[in-house]
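pls design
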């Protein structure tokens, strides 16, 4: 699959990814209508505009104020931080789940099955080879195939760097090796390398992924202090790691300017944040954002979808 067909496939996938990041952050207390409306806005308006600014010779590559081309190979900012900034707005506007923050304490809401969560991250990890490697959009020459192979290696190493860093930091600071942090560390490493997975050396890829895991950990703690309830850790892993990965591109790509990367990142931030805030405010004033307290305690599977997610019986 090459050319326009491949590009259309990946653009569709990227739009869905950005929307999924938002839904994960605001899960557990949000109306189904809120999900549906914002997913439509994200996939039909927010992402296509932000994506068009970078790809297909958009204005971030042609504007006179840009000292060099803005590089975001597979979307650290254009995909992941787009979803992350919208998720931040959504999580703030919707508010935390009942009982998440009590008397200055953060109450853990553990997932129902950590084995399945781990399996899910492994599937994401595997899928990222297609996400990053496929963004080369060609495999018809030896150069393209070699580039894809390099992207695969760097993608894998960055994920490993994120996992190891999250494991070490959580152990040193928290006293235990936090599996959830390790899983999000893998995602953060993957997101960070996505902006430029071709030019880094293997050691540089590990470093980029490791810093992604580090900023993910500390931004998670920051969200707790701000009492912003991000159910799956989407904001630290996608927004913060995505911004880091975009700004880190000039470290390994000499043709890229730090100024261009900064201006491109800020452009995406302002656009997504402002539009998302407007959309969530409109929804809050019209259809509403949250389900009732009774519905939240019952569970969104029953109250919003009408099914039982986990039919466990004694």
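designed seq:
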């Amino acid at each position: 699959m090459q050319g326009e067909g491949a590009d259309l496939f990946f653009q569709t996938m990227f739009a869905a990814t950005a929307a999924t990041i938002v839904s994960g952050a605001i899960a557990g207390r949000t109306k189904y209508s809120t999900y549906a409306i914002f997913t439509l806005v994200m996939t039909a308006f927010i992402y296509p505009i932000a994506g068009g600014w970078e790809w297909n010779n958009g204005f971030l590559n042609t504007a006179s104020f840009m000292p060099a081309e803005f590089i975001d190979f597979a979307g650290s900012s254009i995909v992941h931080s787009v979803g992350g900034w919208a998720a931040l707005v959504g999580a703030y506007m919707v508010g935390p789940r009942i009982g998440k923050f009590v008397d200055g304490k953060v109450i853990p809401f553990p997932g129902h099955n950590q084995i399945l969560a781990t399996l899910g991250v492994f599937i994401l990890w595997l899928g990222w080879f297609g996400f990053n490697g496929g963004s080369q959009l060609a495999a018809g020459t030896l150069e393209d195939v070699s580039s894809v192979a390099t992207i695969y290696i760097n993608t894998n190493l960055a994920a490993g760097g994120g996992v190891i860093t999250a494991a070490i930091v959580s152990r040193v600071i928290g006293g235990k090796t936090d599996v959830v942090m390790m899983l999000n560390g893998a995602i953060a490493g993957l997101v960070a390398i996505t902006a430029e997975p071709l030019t880094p050396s293997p050691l540089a890829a590990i470093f980029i992924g490791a810093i992604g895991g580090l900023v993910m950990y500390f931004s998670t703690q920051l969200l707790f202090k701000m009492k912003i309830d991000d159910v799956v850790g989407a904001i630290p892993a996608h927004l913060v790691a995505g911004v880091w990965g975009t700004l880190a591109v000039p470290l390994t790509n000499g043709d890229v300017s730090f100024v261009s990367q900064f201006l491109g990142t800020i452009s995406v931030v302002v656009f997504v944040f402002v539009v998302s805030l407007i959309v969530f405010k409109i929804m809050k004033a019209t259809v509403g954002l949250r389900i009732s307290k009774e519905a939240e305690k019952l569970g969104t599977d029953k109250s919003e979808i009408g099914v039982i997610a986990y039919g466990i019986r004694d």
